[in-house]
Write a structure and sequence with these properties.
Layout: H1 22-33, H2 38-54, E1 60-63, H3 69-77, E2 84-88, H4 94-105, E3 113-117, E4 130-137, H5 140-151, E5 154-160, H6 178-192, E6 196-201, E7 211-216
Parallel strand pairs: 1-2, 1-4, 2-3, 4-5
Antiparallel strand pairs: 5-7, 6-7
Helix pairs in contact: 1-4, 2-3
The chain binds S-adenosylmethionine (SAM).
């Protein structure tokens, strides 16, 4: 199966996910909702499991959440997070369909995720939140990192759509390609703000924008 496909997962694909793993169960719920591009399932899963290996508990804040699957998988992987806030300035209508399908399979998710249509600049955040974002395009990733640092929260981002125009690449572009230089500068900035940083990758066959940046305050 091409894990990078943007085709929607539908009930026709249920036989592909017949196993008894948590991933297969989530994939079946996603197929029944029939609204999510295949790639988003794999991205959310691969990001969530890596985040949970490092960061437990706290309210989840899924920024630029789209369908909010990342937030819901994070809740499934660690029940010690009481609730999740999934925020985007435009939440697709089908996010509700997906949430209903996941709730049908895991009633314990019910009433624990709140979708909010808002600009990320306006969200009220707390020090013990776990801020996550998958594919916050261009400078949106920097906004999310800034917002996390502002309140000293843990953060995990999978940057994409690097906008190199006028970017500060710290002179690294002679050695590193532009997007990589930009992510290195993000790491350096977080470290200078006292953060401990972990760099990982999700599998490149899902997306070439696969660098995962996790950071926690001292
Ligand atoms: C590439 S999508 C990523 C969606 C989802 N996280 C995913 O992985 O599929 C970027 C999202 O950022 C949202 N967005 C862009 N600027 C925003 C802002 N200033 N405040 C809130 N959401 C924003 C868009 O509405 C869009 O849903």
């Amino acid at each position: 199966m091409d894990r990078s496909s943007r085709n929607r997962l539908t009930e026709k694909l249920l036989p592909q996910f017949a196993g008894d793993t948590l991933f297969d169960a989530i994939a079946r719920a996603v197929c029944r909702a029939s609204c999510l591009p295949r790639k988003e399932l794999y991205e959310a899963w691969e990001v969530a499991r890596r985040v949970r290996r490092r960061f437990r508990g706290g309210r989840i804040v899924d920024m630029a959440c789209g369908h909010g699957l990342l937030a819901q998988i994070l809740l499934l992987l660690d029940d010690s997070s009481p609730v999740a806030l999934a925020a985007d300035r435009h939440i697709p209508k089908s996010a509700a369909t997906l949430a209903v399908s996941l709730n049908d399979s895991w009633p314990r998710l019910r009433d624990r995720i709140q979708f909010v249509e808002a600009d990320l600049r306006d969200l009220q955040l707390h020090h013990d939140d776990l801020i996550v974002s998958s594919h916050a395009c261009g400078g949106l990733t920097d906004l999310i990192l800034d917002r996390a640092v502002e309140i000293g929260a843990r953060v995990a981002v999978l940057p994409c759509c690097h906008d190199l125009k006028d970017a500060d690449l710290s002179g690294l572009q002679g050695w590193l390609d532009g997007p990589l230089a930009m992510d290195v500068v993000r790491v350096t900035r977080l470290r200078s703000q006292g953060y401990r940083v972990f760099t990982q990758q999700i599998p490149g066959d899902i997306t070439p924008k696969n660098r995962l940046l996790l950071a926690e305050p001292p």
